[in-house]
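queue> pop job 88
queue> type: inverse folding (structure -> sequence)
queue> payload:
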């Protein structure tokens, strides 16, 4: 039986920067086909039957880890969730020693989230299996950006000319970085809206528009993408207080009214209600895509796993 055509040119998914527009479009198309499967009464497929997937999360995760687990199981794979807190890592084992141990188990795909930027890429050089970056430090979170793009595509039909305002803690956000790369590749106009203390140095290098006044940044926006205030990554006073932060940068209906009529709201989660977003906006089904993002997350991660398995089956790709 002929293996399905490969979608990705490499054996891993480490970031958006390394993907072509064609690869992104193919992943979006494949993920869109999985939405219907996930909504059907029978959600199982045998695409990954006989494959083994390991989830290795060094940081806490609800949406990403559970959706990868669900994606793998719906495609028929054997899925192992490694608990870092009870593993040898908690006893001082290095990341490379862990990699050697995992390699000996001969998995097909490793999903890894790590607090250090570059950890996923390091593992990709040490393991014989495919590696998916589920978030590394403040670097990238490619599947989150892909699922965000799928959510936008299904609602807006395309990206060319869309104004997407990414608002909040851009400095510490790997989600922001992946979305900047992806949305820019697909033709959207990306704005970063944040206080100066929460913007990366030389943010203009990303080819985006920069706003430190949220009201100005939201004017005419089609999509408002809020980011979590990542207090756990902050050493020092980046904001005066969460209360003052919400006053100036928290999204409520008053600020949202400045965006384009019909503007939609996104958030990668978890949300800090009353800090970066008001509950009245987050729960407003007329404007909020937050729950839809969660649903699209499973479909997109199914597509990523499927695409990597196609490469494994066809063999001969560059790593």
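queue> result:
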């Amino acid at each position: 039986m002929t293996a399905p055509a490969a979608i990705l040119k490499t054996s891993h998914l480490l970031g958006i920067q390394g993907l072509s527009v064609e690869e992104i479009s193919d992943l979006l198309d494949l993920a869109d086909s999985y939405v219907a499967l996930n909504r059907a009464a029978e959600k199982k497929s045998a695409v990954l039957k006989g494959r083994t997937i390991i989830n290795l999360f060094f940081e806490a995760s609800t949406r990403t880890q559970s959706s990868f687990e669900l994606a793998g199981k719906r495609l028929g794979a054997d899925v192992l969730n490694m608990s870092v807190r009870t593993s040898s890592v908690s006893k001082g084992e290095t990341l490379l020693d862990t990699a050697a141990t995992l390699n000996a188990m001969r998995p097909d795909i490793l999903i890894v989230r790590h607090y250090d930027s570059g950890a996923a890429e390091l593992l990709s050089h040490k393991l014989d299996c495919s590696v998916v970056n589920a978030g590394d430090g403040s670097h990238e979170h490619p599947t989150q950006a892909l699922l965000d793009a799928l959510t936008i595509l299904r609602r807006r039909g395309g990206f060319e000319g869309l104004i997407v305002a990414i608002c909040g803690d851009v400095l510490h956000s790997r989600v922001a970085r992946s979305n900047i790369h992806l949305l820019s590749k697909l033709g959207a106009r990306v704005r970063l809206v944040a206080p100066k203390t929460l913007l990366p140095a030389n943010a203009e290098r990303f080819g985006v528009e920069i706003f430190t006044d949220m009201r100005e940044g939201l004017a005419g926006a089609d999509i408002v993408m809020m980011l979590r205030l990542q207090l756990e990554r902050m050493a020092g006073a980046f904001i005066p207080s969460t209360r003052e932060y919400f006053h100036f940068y928290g999204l409520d209906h008053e600020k949202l009214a400045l965006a384009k009529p019909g503007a939609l709201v996104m958030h990668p989660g978890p949300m800090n209600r009353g800090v970066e977003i008001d509950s009245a906006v987050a729960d407003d089904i007329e404007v909020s895509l937050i729950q839809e993002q969660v649903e699209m997350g499973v479909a997109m991660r199914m597509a990523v796993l499927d695409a990597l398995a196609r490469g494994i089956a066809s063999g001969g790709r560059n790593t």
